[in-house]
Design a protein that fits this description.
The protein is α/β, with parallel strands linked by helices. The longest helix has 15 residues.
């Protein structure tokens, strides 16, 4: 009964059966009649078309499908299968749904608490509580945002240095520019980091809204902040800022492009969440617009590994995005 093991399949000659591994692609699975279908982490598939095709090709009467997976989002096929089974609408289906259970002894309450501070709430529940990601919800609790309010507002480089017990500081800035056809706002933010007893704390030094998004006004403000705060890096969000980025490079201002929906977005917003939750983000009380936008900042799971961030209930998020990229420049 010894099997023949090949690169992509296992063949059992005595049983005249073959187990084949296929890529998660509709083209590779089409036309493959299946007796047994095994789906691994179906709930985390961003593209579930291949799995759906395989299910439709389990034609024999005794064909079976086995799935072991994290539950994923509410839009995923697996969650719909779970609901059908629990509501009794799926005959011949056995479903055991482990919700909010962690059988491994290595997963302690302390470890979970630390992970919860490091991940957006929706992702934490999906990956560590096995609960589906659903509607948009706020990223930061109101009390967490309120705890960021600060009466400390450094007005100069020297004042920022005094906040560090070792006089070790760093500054960064970012600009989120409004699109020409949208109702967004153009916002620039400057952040300063100060090392205190071996831990970095971050202070919002400037938050400027440009009502008309005029190029000359933005350039003047950028140069003023660069000279005043000795900014180490300026991040330009990659919408309507290519001209400003080139100008800054020519002026000797260290600059970087960043796409709002790029690969660094999740880590950048997770950093914001962690700093706010641990009391290391300090925002002057006068910056009411930024504080309000933080309270109404929402997030929603989009597929298995992507989270969409933005203002809820019609709120702007431009100041928050500028803050996130300014923190990314220094943290």
């Amino acid at each position: 009964w010894k099997p023949y093991i090949h690169r992509r399949h296992i063949y059992l000659p005595t049983m005249q059966s073959q187990c084949e591994a296929l890529a998660n692609n509709p083209r590779t699975v089409s036309g493959e009649p299946t007796d047994v279908l095994i789906g691994e982490e179906v709930g985390l598939m961003d593209d579930e078309r291949a799995f759906q095709i395989c299910r439709s090709q389990t034609t024999p009467l005794n064909a079976q499908t086995f799935i072991a997976s994290t539950v994923g989002t509410e839009e995923n096929v697996l969650w719909k299968m779970i609901l059908d089974a629990e509501e009794g609408n799926a005959r011949k289906t056995f479903c055991r749904y482990f919700k909010d259970e962690n059988p491994s002894p290595r997963i302690t309450d302390e470890w979970l608490a630390e992970r919860e501070r490091q991940m957006p709430p929706i992702q934490f529940r999906m990956f560590h509580r096995n609960m589906p990601g659903g509607e948009t919800e706020v990223l930061l609790a109101p009390e967490v945002v309120d705890a960021c309010r600060s009466v400390i507002e450094p007005g100069s480089w020297n004042e920022l240095e005094k906040l560090s017990d070792e006089n070790i500081v760093i500054t960064g800035a970012a600009l989120d520019r409004a699109t020409l056809e949208g109702a967004d706002e153009t916002v620039g933010v400057v952040v300063g980091g100060a090392l205190q007893e071996g831990v970095w704390h971050y202070y919002v030094l400037e938050c400027r809204t440009f009502e008309l998004s005029l190029e000359e006004a933005i350039k003047s403000w950028t140069m003023d902040q660069f000279l005043r705060w000795n900014i180490s890096e300026f991040v330009w969000e990659q919408y309507q800022t290519e001209d400003l980025y080139r100008w800054a490079e020519n002026e000797g201002i260290p600059s970087r492009f960043e796409h709002a929906q790029g690969g660094k977005q999740l880590s950048a917003f997770t950093r914001l969440q962690t700093l706010a939750a641990t009391g290391r983000l300090h925002i002057p009380e006068r910056l009411t617009k930024l504080l309000r936008q933080l309270k109404f900042l929402g997030h929603k799971a989009k597929g298995s590994r992507h989270v969409q961030f933005g203002g809820t209930v019609g709120e702007h998020d431009d100041a928050v995005y500028a803050l996130v990229w300014a923190l990314d420049a220094v943290a």
